[in-house]
Write a structure and sequence with these properties.
The protein has 351 residues and is an all-beta fold. It is 0% helix and 50% strand.
Length: 351
Amino acid sequence: MSGFMMRRKDKRKPPQPSLQAMWRTDIDDHPIGLAWSPDGKLLAAAGVSGPITLFSGRDGALQGNLPGHTLGTMAISWHKDSRLLASVGQDGKVRLWDTKTGRQTSEMAGGASWVERVAFSPAGDWLVSAAGRKLRLWDTSGELKYEYPDANSTITDIKWRHDGKQFAISAYNGVVLYDPTKAEPLNRFEWQGSTLTLEWSPDGKHIATGDQDSTVHFWLVATGQDLQMWGYETKVLELAWSSNSRYLATGGGTQAVIWDCSGKGPENTKPIMVEGHRHLIKHLKFQRRGRLLASGGNDGLLAIWKIEKKKPVMLADAVFKTPIAGLAWSPNDRYIAVSDESGILSIAAVQ
């Protein structure tokens, strides 16, 4: 009845609330992108072979199939109107789709043979794409506004500030900030190393990065001052901020490491350690407005945590047959969408 195989049992703990399965389906492909429409009515699932499937968020009913990219889709992003969906892929294209009609509205050249990243502004007025070192800014009709100077290495991530007035990219040597109304970068946060992923704090005051050398960097945007956290088991690809910008959750191992960024920040403090996974954590997602954290790992475990200073509390958990491939909270924070590497897609509510 669901994609969940079992509840984990631990006789040492009192009974915990469970995940209530809402619906389950199989996209028959390895999921590479999972995204709710901003209004919560649709869930888009992109398969690595190319097609993008649209489901009803309420009951899982099939709402449409988009062909995506013939050589494989790499990433997807919703416009704030919940109708327009952007996708990029291994055919070198950026595509815009009308999800009501299923038709492609625009096709743009990304600048290289593979386009790995795409992100709509939260304000809905801009779309930015990255293909290798090529960074391009588009309007919502697909018209090119800026082609920025090549990055000094492959762009590994793009993230917008939550008000949509700036975006940041990561690459080798750190992070570069942009204002979409200007042709030149606003600022650079540099360090000698390979940056793999980045996340703005919701209040816009901080940028965190996960790095190839098993570290996390933490920048104060106003001053450029940076901190470095180390001691991770492996490279760090998993970052998540709590909605109040207090907690930064990081992966890079079998435990989630939670840094308290309130007050004077995390410098010289001891992080909160979240234990429960037997293998590497692959996904971390805080609720959009709430304070629950979802973690998914190579062990197939999905866990929902309440982060507390003294000791994190696991509220619910479930185990999938294969490693977790994607996590996404619904816009209203009531549901969690989970995909595993076999293509099973499930929606559950935390009770």
